[in-house]
Amino acid sequence: MNIAIFGGSFDPIHTAHVKIVKKAFTKLDISRLIVVPTFINPLKSNYHIAPQKRYKLLLNVFSQLKNVDVSDYEISQKKSVYSLDTVKHLKKQYKASKIYFIIGADNYEQLHLWQGIDELNHLVEFVVATRYGYETPTELKILDVDVNISSTILRNKIDYRYIPAVIKNDLKEILK
Questions:
Q1: Rounded distance, CA 113 to CA 109, Å?
Q2: 103-133, pLDDT tens digit by residue?
Q3: Is the pLDDT of residue 27 over 80?
């Protein structure tokens, strides 16, 4: 089975995340896509929305999409988890023969900092989702999404036009 893993903080989830997931099914040879929210990103010191709340928002957003799972693996660890550990866990759980690992162009610039990157490079094929203002590597598979929004921008000033409709009210309640 070929799978794709799309990990991140999703703090908050926005329409570009949904577009990445949908685009992956058109561009990659995959049977399933697993969205993996972090408890806390190993390269960050905090989060804005609590992990369990982000997990529930993701479940609501992706519950209607066929062959998309939301994994609570990292959140259930209640600590920062390296992508290498998550990949090994999901490879075993899904009996995956091929794993695509989707990252945003902004994260690609920090890829060399990831724990176990050499081993990770042997286990997965990285796929980069394009983003305005970031260069796109030519040697990797690309998901052309180019939505000019980020979770950081939304944390600084929420713009509900970029929040999936199914969770707008839930997010408004969380951010009160």
A1: 9
A2: 999 889 889 999 999 999 999 999 999 988 8
A3: yes
Domains identified in the chain and CATH numbers: 2-174 (3.40.50.620)
162-169 CB contacts, 8 Å cutoff, 24+ apart: 162/14, 162/15, 162/16, 163/12, 163/13, 163/14, 163/15, 164/13, 164/14, 164/15, 164/18, 164/61, 166/60, 166/61, 166/64, 167/13, 167/57, 167/60, 167/61
Q: Which residues of 120-138 are buried (b: 16+ CB within 10 A; e: fewer)?
A: beeebebbbbbbeebeeee
Residue 130 half-sphere exposure, CB side, CA atoms within 13 Å? Answer: 13
Q: What does pTM read for this prediction?
A: 0.96
